[in-house]
C-alpha cells in the first residue's frame, strides 16, 4: 500500500493554505470562498501567521485596519453585501487587540453573518507565563481572554496542536456556510503552536468547491401553512433579511402578486421590495410606518419569512392582534418556533415556491387589499411631506434626519448602497427611505452597533466594487457614532475604496436624549451640552477632521447645498465627507411608531416620570403573551 502523501508545514501555513483552496459556487461562477481579510499585527500573530499570510497575499489579500473592532465590522459588511456567499477573516494579536473584536463578533452573531476570527493566544507550553498582555486566571490557567468569545460565536476552538486544524478548520467553515447556524467562527492560535510543524496530508489542501445548502420544508408543514393561509381573511407577509440571503426577493414578489397579499418589511429586510410596488406597505414595528402597523393590528394570519421577529419588528409583541396566527418560514428551527408560530423550517426561496404551488389560484379578499392600498397611499403622502425641507435654497438652520434622507433618496442612483447603524438614523431611514433598488440598504440593527457605519462602508465598498464599481457606497452616520469609530475614512483613502459619508451633527446622542425626555427624565449626559464639561460645549470641525485623513470634505447648511455637494462627491476620486447640522429636538418622524417595551421607574419624585411609567404600563396591556 502506497504511503500517504504529506507536506510539512507550520500550523499557520497549513491554515492559510487550506483557506486559500476553498471556493464557492456563485451566480458569477466559482469564486474563492474567503475574499481575504483584515489584520493588525502584534507579537501574537505577526511572526508566524503573518509569514503565512504573506506567502498567500495574492490569493487572500490582507487589508491593514486602524482598529481591530472596525476591521472586523468591515468584514461583516462585506459578507452582508455578498449575501453570506463569501466571507473575510480578521486577525489580531493576543490581549487587547483580540478583545477589541468582541463587539464585532456579537454583531456577526446577532445578524447571523459569517466572520472568521483568527486571534493570537498565550503559549500552549506555558513556559514563559505570564507573557505580555496575558490575563491570568489564578484557578484556571487554561482560561485566556479568548474564552470571552464563547458567548458571541457560533463555533469556538483553541488550537493547541497543529494537527487539530485538520478537523477544526473545515468545521468552522461549515458553520459559517450553514444557513441555519451561520455566524462567526473563532480560532484561538497560541503563539508557539502557530509555528509548530506537522506532516499534513496533501488532500487537506486540494481545491474544494462549496455550495450553500437549500433545505426543503416538510410537506406536512407546508400543508398546514396552506390551510391556514386559505382560511385567512386578512393575511400579511413580513419579509425579513433572510429573504435576501435566500435570494428569494423575486419569488417573494411573485408570491405576493399571485395571491394578493400585502408585504411589510423588517429593518433587516429593507429593500426586499421596491417602494414603488403596490403591495409594499412599508416597514413594520417600533421604527415602522402607519401603513404596515395598521395592517399588523388587523391581520389574522401573518406569514413571517426569514425574520427572527425581534422586538423592534413586533413592537415588543404589541404590533399584532393577540389572536393572530403566525406562520414562521425560516431555515433556522430556533427562529421558526417562536411565539406559538406554525413552523415551516426550510429555505425561504424553496418554501415560498412550495407554498405557491399548493395554494394554486387562491387570493386574499379584495377588500383587504383595498384597505392596504389606502393605508399605503396615506403613508407615502406623509413621507413626502416629512422629507420635504421648507427651505430649499439656504437658511443656516438645522435640518431634520428625514429631510436629509429624503434629499439623498432623491439624487442617489438606484444601485447605490445605503448604510447606517445605531442612533436615530436607523429608525428615520427605515420609515422614510423609498427603496429604488433591491438589496441596496444595510441598516445594522441586529446589535445596533455604534461605529459600524464608516467601517461597514469600507467593507461594503469592497463587495460593491466586485459587482457595480460605478455605483456609490453611501454612509449615514451621526456625530456620536462618528466620534466612536471614524478611522476607516483613512483606511478607505489609503486603499482606494471610495465611500460617501453624510455626517448628521446633532450635538451628541440626540435620540437617547429624546428617549430620556419622552420618559419624563431631564436631559443628562446624552447631548454634549448637558454633560459634565470643563469648558463651554463646542462642535467638532468634521470637515477638517475628514480632510486630515485624506478625504475630500465640505460642510453644508441646506438641502439645496446638500444635493449639490452629493453631486460633487459622486464625481470625486476618493472618499468624500459631507457634514451638516441636524436638529436634536424637532424634526423627528412622529408617525409610524409601535409601542416598545422599556424599563421605567415605578417610584420617582418627578411627576413626569410617574406619568410616563403609567403610559408604558398601559401599552403593555396589548402585549401578546409569549410561550
Question: Can you put this structure into words, describing what you see?
Answer:
It is a single chain. The protein has 23 helices and 23 strands. By secondary structure, the chain is of the alpha/beta class. The strands form 5 sheets. It has a 6-stranded parallel beta sheet, with helices on both faces. A 6-stranded parallel beta sheet has the order 14-13-12-15-16-17, with helices on both faces. Helix 1 runs parallel beside helix 2, helix 3 (68-81) packs across helix 17 and helix 9 (249-259) runs parallel beside helix 13 (348-359).
Please state the CA-atom Rg, rounded to the nearest Å: 25 Å
| Shape field | globular
Q: Order the strands across the largest sheet as they lie in space.
A: 5-4-6-7-9-8
How many angstroms does the end-to-end distance come to? 60 Å
**How does the major sheet shape up?**
6 strands, parallel
- Indicate the percent of residues in helices: 25-40%
In the CATH hierarchy, what is the architecture of the largest domain at level 2?
3-Layer(aba) Sandwich
Strand element count: 23
CATH topology of the largest domain: Rossmann fold
Low-confidence stretches: none
Question: What percentage of amino acids are in beta strands?
Answer: 15-25%
* Average pLDDT number: 95
- DSSP summary: helix tally: 23
- SS-based class: alpha/beta
Oligomer: single chain
According to CATH, what is the class of the largest domain?
Alpha Beta
CATH superfamily of the largest domain: Thiamin diphosphate (ThDP)-binding fold, Pyr/PP domains
Number of domains: 4
